[in-house]
Structures are given as structure tokens and as C-alpha cells.
Write a structure and sequence with these properties.
Structural class: alpha/beta
Order of helices and strands: HEHEHEHEHEHEEHEHHHHHH
Strand order of the largest sheet: 3-2-1-4-5-6-7-8
Largest sheet: 8 strands, mixed
Bound molecules: NADP nicotinamide-adenine-dinucleotide phosphate
CATH architecture of the largest domain: 3-Layer(aba) Sandwich
CATH topology of the largest domain: Rossmann fold
Helix content: 40-55%
Strand content: 5-15%
Number of domains: 2
CATH superfamily of the largest domain: NAD(P)-binding Rossmann-like Domain
Shape: elongated
Number of strands: 8
Distance between the termini: 42 Å
Amino acid sequence: MSNEEKSTGDVAVIGAGNMGTALIRGLLGSGWTNDQILATGPDPAKMADLEETLGVQTATENRKGAAFGETVVMAVKPQIIDGVLDEVADSLQPGALVVSVAAGIPTDRIEAQLTGDQPVVRTMPNLPATVGYGATAMCAGDHADAEHLVTTRRLFESVGSVVGVDESLMDAVTGLSGTGPMYVFQIIEGLSDAGVKVGLSREDAHELAMQTVLGAAVMARESGQHPAELKDRVTSPAGTGITALHEMERGGLRALLIDAVEAATDRSRELGDHG
Ligand SMILES: NC(=O)c1ccc[n+]([C@@H]2O[C@H](COP(=O)([O-])OP(=O)(O)OC[C@H]3O[C@@H](n4cnc5c(N)ncnc54)[C@H](OP(=O)(O)O)[C@@H]3O)[C@@H](O)[C@H]2O)c1
């Protein structure tokens, strides 16, 4: 599919901060043209800067964004999304798709702020979306159909990969991929410390650890092989791989990861219940 074919109409990004700007960069690299994107934010200087660096239209008036977009991405912080939805509700085009990236805000809460049967899709991207390698999960609200999910998939595939889930699993997504970059940063730092422990300079250990995680992830994605098969390929009889694997199993690495994801999922649910 050419970039031209991938673009799906005018997109407004309400609250162009880290995530909103990452998405705009992704869209511009995936076939959307500058005049198809309008970003909003309260600070005129930041908006002027965005206009200058990315060449998209900007406004400090959220209603202008709402009126512009066939798709309107709500990329403000969860703490203020209710007020911003209330502000823009009357300006949305009838049938415009509202896509939220706000962590922990359910679709029914968003729908309740809007008038009519406005379609809503909730997404949970993660931090690597800012470098084009995000993992995003999405779920549909009551008035969103398959076509709205296709549109949302196209938007977020511009910054990584996308899966569709039932909304009841959004806390699990937060526990796995939302929180996930932290697990991997810890692993990189831990491997780097390990390299120093066995005599490497900090600089070399960090470079080797980082590139090893990146290379293994690319292999896991591109080889089409199950991680267990890849693991078998790097564990030779009586070799270093199987010796290290024994230590990792003794330390309970797999159980630790499961515990961590489960705890983060529970915490996400708890924050949602009280937030
Ligand atoms: N960052 C992530 O890794 C990540 C991952 C998953 C989901 N998310 C979600 O993405 C959303 C944005 O997070 P972020 O990290 O991008 O935060 P952020 O950088 O602070 O972006 C929020 C933006 O909203 C703007 N804003 C503030 N008040 C506004 C208003 N009344 N109307 C319109 N815009 C307003 C802010 O402008 P000023 O800076 O000028 O105040 C800022 O540019 C959140 O809902 C978060 O849950 C983020």
C-alpha cells in the first residue's frame, strides 16, 4: 500500500505534547500531508514552534481542532480530559471519530461527555511510540464500528504496531506493554552492570547490552521463530548459554516477570477504580 493510500482524512490532535507530537511525526511519515493535520495546545509559543518544525496547522483553541478533524485524537493528560471533552463536544463534526490516548479513561466516560452517538476508540500506546516503535492496544466504544478501528489502526501503525483488544483487557495492556519499557530498561541496566562485574568498561558494557536487547528483539520479530526455538539455537551442550539459563531459572526470572506484569495490571485497575 502506498503512503498516499494509507492516509485517512483530516486529523486533529488535541494536546500536542509528547504523545501527540510523536503521532503527528508518525502520520507525516506515513502519507498524511501537513494540511491534513491540526494540533492544539494552550501555549502559543509551543504551537508556533510546532508549526515551524513540522509544518502542520496549529491552534490554541481546542474547538478549532474539534471542528477540523474527521478524526480527533485526545492527547491531553487524563486529569483534564473531562473538561477538554466538555469544551469540544459541540464543535465536533457529526460522526467524527474521537480517539483517546488517555491512560485509564474508559470509553463510556468519554462517550458520556459527548453529544449524540459520536464514535469513540480508546488506545493505549507506549513510550517507544516517540521513536516509531510503539506498541498500541485499542478497543472500541459503543458507537465505534470496524471501520473506526481500521482508521485508528492506520493512525497508530504510523508509530509502531497495533493490536485490538476487549476493553476489559486494557489494564492488562497497561501492565504488559504500557509499563513494559521499564522492564526492558531495567534489563539493559542489569546486563550492563553484569558486564562491568565481569570486567568490561561501563561504556562497552552498556553498548553491548543495549545492542543485544535490540538485536534479539529484531530477531524475535523477523525470524518468525518462537522465542523457545531461538533460545535453543543459542544453548549448545555444556555451553555458556545453558549454564546461564540454569542460573536464570534458579532465580525465577520468568515468575518474576509474570509477578511484575500482574502487579502492574492490578495497580492499573486500582488507579482506574479510584481515579
Ligand atoms: N507519554 C507516554 O508514554 C504515554 C503512553 C500512553 C499514554 N499516554 C497518554 O498520552 C496523553 C498525553 O501524555 P503525554 O506524555 O504526551 O503528556 P504531555 O507531554 O504533557 O502532553 C499533554 C499536552 O496537553 C497540552 N494541554 C494542557 N492543557 C491543555 C488543554 N486545556 N487543551 C489542550 N491541550 C492541553 C499540554 O500543553 P502544555 O505543555 O503547553 O501545558 C501538552 O502539550 C496522556 O493522556 C497519557 O495518559 C502517554
